[in-house]
Amino acid sequence: MSRVLVLHGPNLNLLGTREPEIYGRTTLAEIDARLLALGAELGATVECRQSNHEGVLLDWIHAARGTFDGILINPGAFTHTSLALADAVAGVAIPTVEVHLSNVHAREPIRQKSYVGAKCVGTVSGFGPDSYALGLRALVDHLSARDSAGRGGVPKP
Ligand code: DQA
Q1: How many angstroms is it from 75 CA to the middle of ligand 1?
Q2: pTM for this entry
């Protein structure tokens, strides 16, 4: 059973009322509830946390070593600014999937650069709350493919 840590970065606690024309009306609590249910369906444990503080997110990523098998992260605006979060993801070497509600590639130029995404297994962007569900499925799939490769199975390319 994979253990997945879900991290939400700054301002995502405001989901539901924050710029709904961009981020929709689904609240963070609703997203988390959906991820817990999906995790149970996929045979994964899911723990969700949100912080507006870069250092707190860094500490959670560091502490995930030995406790979580994978990380699903929406780094919010830190996506585009934080070399430190990118270094943390690379440093702990825990497979990480980046997700965004909006399609960051279709937005302002500054949002088209992701420091964090460069250190992730992959990124899902632009599907609203479904980005999280798709990202969780991809992460759990990646982790089980990696485990079966470790047991002599065929790794995914
Ligand atoms: C976001 C995109 C970021 O550019 C923005 O700063 C956010 C949310 C998204 O989920 O679409 O806070 O990560």
Answers
A1: 7
A2: 0.95
Q: Helices marked H in 65-155 — which ranges?
A: 83-92, 130-150
* Calpha distance 154→87 (Å, rounded): 29
Query: How high is the pLDDT of residue 18?
Result: 96
Pairing state between β 44-50 and 70-74:
unpaired
Q: How far apart are CA 30 and CA 53, in angstroms?
A: 22
8-state DSSP, 95: -
Ligand 1 mutation pick, 7, 82, 99, 100, max ligand atoms within 8 A of CB = 100
pLDDT, tens only, 121-157: 999 999 999 999 999 999 999 999 988 887 766 555 5
The phi and psi torsions of 117 (rounded to 5 degrees) equal -60, -30
Q: Is the domain defined by 2-148 classed in CATH 3.40.47.10? A: no
Cα 149 to Cα 16: distance, rounded to the nearest angstrom? 40
Domain boundaries, the chain: 2-148
* Average pLDDT of every residue of the chain: 95
